[in-house]
Amino acid sequence: MPVATDLVVFAVFFVLALSVVLKVDGASYRERPKSADVLKGDTVTLHCAIDGLPPSEMVQWYGPPDMRHISSGNVIAKRFKGRYRILGDTTRGEHNLQILRAANSDEGDYRCSTLSLDETAEATLAVVVPLSGPPDIIGDTAPRKAGQGLMLTCTSVGGRPPPRLTWYNGTRPYKLPDDAFKEGINKGEVMLNLVIPYLTKWDNGANLSCKANQGFPSLVKARTAVKVLNVRYPPTVTVTPKSSRVMEGESLNVTCHVDSNPPADVDWRKVGHALPFRVDNRGQVLHLDRVSSSDAGIYQCIAENGIPPVGYGTFTLEVLFTPRIRQTFDTKVSVLYGQDGFSLECVAEGNPRPQVRWRRQNTELYMGNPLVLSPVNYDVEGKYACVASSPGFASVDKETFIDVVGRPEVRDSSLSTLTIVEGGDATLICEVASDPVPDGITWFWRDSNGKETIYTAGITEHVAVREERTSKGVKSLLTVSTAALDQAGNYMCRASNMFGSDQKDFRLEVQDSHLTLIIVIAVTTVVSLLAVIVGVCIVKKKGWISDDRDSETSSVSVSRPVPPVPGPDMVDREERDGKPEGLYEYDVNNGTLKPRPPPRLDKDPYSIGLSYPRLVNVLPSYATVERDQPKSPDPDLQPRPSGDGECAPTITVRKQMS
Does position 409 have pLDDT exceeding 70, yes or no? Predict the structure, then answer.
């Protein structure tokens, strides 16, 4: 490490000693002259300093034109006196050349040297002559339409050195081909062409500038000429908002934004309609005050500036409003009776679109729209309501009365056949629906011999006819008092008006009083007996009647033993063989026997009551000893009802102790 340090110190001293020897042995530049720029008429100094200059040698300056000798030491050549001089401490080798009031002839290369120097140092002086003014822009700069072309020429005259021309669109320079630059016919004149083949609306208002730059920003500033393009183009319209949905009664503003050159005239219209009187047309702003349903639709903003085409913008207004039923039907609609069908349409408007249905008065039954009535009769007459409903709004309705007019209609609401007992009263009811009311209701009676009798309102012998008004028309009642057998027959009710007539046939049957009494007694007896049987079955099934097996004994005496009760296998076998014996079929019911149901009596309508035949075999008396009662573990031997579901008596069999 000490050895390396010693070597570095030795090298430094060696270099210093060598430089001293060189200074002593020869001259060298301490400061070389440097190129400089100067405005014409200003002062400029070119610096030069030489070390090791022998006392006998002089520093020489040479310059334009053609490296002429300017000075030797401090002495200036005669031709350069007055504007050139040497400055600096010559004893230290400083010989600076100063030029006053620089002229164009001063521009060129300068050299500072001496005889002992092996090399020479040169510098260039540039004398700058500023431009007298900005460049000129030549061309048709009048307003032009979009789509047309444009050619402009930028021209600059004078200046030293000649300027470099550049076209700008705002701050963006145009990249032009080399042949766009040309020199003018005049000395120092330069030109640069700009060609725009197709102008657009976006070029309107553009700042086209031509900049002339001499390249010496520290001495002179670039000069610029500007032209603002005036491009005319048709209107472009934008409407805000595009659409709007408002409730009826609200207000809103719509704005029409127009881009055009020159400015356009703006107007509003409603497509297919005139503008509502509540609309305030303020040019670009359309004010709609308290909108109604009729204001809904499409509005147009129209902008025109004389340059086709005309600009259009649209706005769609949707108004939400409660349902409203149009006056498409009257409060009363007359319909002819007997039509195959009738329809009535209800037209309702609203937003959202309402649901339209029909409802008959005092019902909750809804029908579709249009209302269809088929066939048309007096039953469909009445009040109907058209109901329109929309989400978010209360339902509305409109009523109408369907008035059916036409010929009478005799209703089938009463009996067509009436049977009475001789001597009784009979009333035949003829209900007639009609509009207009019938001119008259006539009754016709045809007896068994074919003789026909006519009855009208009033009393004739034993027949009375009277009429009553109803909501649908008239009701005619024919009453036969103390009817006789010969008053039976066919009766007919006929009603007529200006539209036609309708009729209905009745049958009156008069029965003999004795035969009727027999029939009544027979029917009453059968009904009573059936009621008793049903009552006994119900009581038995409910268990309200029970047998006391511990104390009750049979009162039937027997002279011989009774065979044991047949088991279920015996009964089943006999049933399987299909050959039952005797009048009894056995059923196991706690050791009892159930008799076969009695045979039916002849079907005589006049028979009254039922009876059972006597038992063929008389059962013996048995003691009430329960331990000797037949027992069977088989559940099938437990009591069960008879097979045909009828209530039948059972016989309890008990064995008597000997």
Answer: yes
* Token output for 563: 């065979």
Q: Where are the alpha helices (DSSP H) in 510-593?
A: 513-542, 568-577
Give the pLDDT score at 27: 85
Instruction: Give the pairing of strands 382-389 and 366-367.
Output: unpaired
3-state secondary structure 148-182: CCEEEEEEEECCECCCEEEEEECCEECCCCHHHEE
- Give the distance from CA 502 to its chain's centroid: 57
- Distance CA(316)–CA(429), nearest Å, equals 68
Contact 408, 434 (CB under 8 A): yes
Q: Which of 70, 49, 53 is nearest to 115 (CA)?
A: 53
Residue with tokens 């309708």: 502
Q: Give the pair of three-digit tokens for residue 343.
A: 């329809």
> Is the per-residue pLDDT at 615 higher than 70?
no
Whether the link from the prior residue into 262 is cis, omega within 30° of 0, is yes
Dihedral of CA atoms 97, 99, 105, 110 in degrees, nearest 10, equals 20
Written as six digits, the tokens of 19 are 């430089």
Give the per-residue pLDDT at 517: 66
Spatial CA neighbour of 300 closest among 331, 334, 272: 272
Domains of the chain in start order, with CATH, are: 25-128 (2.60.40.10), 136-229 (2.60.40.10), 233-320 (2.60.40.10), 326-402 (2.60.40.10), 411-511 (2.60.40.10), 547-658 (no CATH)
Its pTM stands at: 0.52
Retrieve residue 242's tokens. 């595009």
> Using an 8 Å Cβ cutoff, are 505 and 445 in contact?
no
Q: Which residue has the tokens 């006053």?
A: 100
Each residue of 274-308: b (16+ CB within 10 Å) or e?
Answer: ebeeebeeeebebebeebeeebbeebbbbbbbebe
Averaged pLDDT for residues 517-540 = 85
In the predicted structure, residue 547 carries a pLDDT above the cut 70: no
pLDDT (tens digit per residue) in 238-279: 999 999 999 999 999 999 999 999 999 999 999 998 888 778
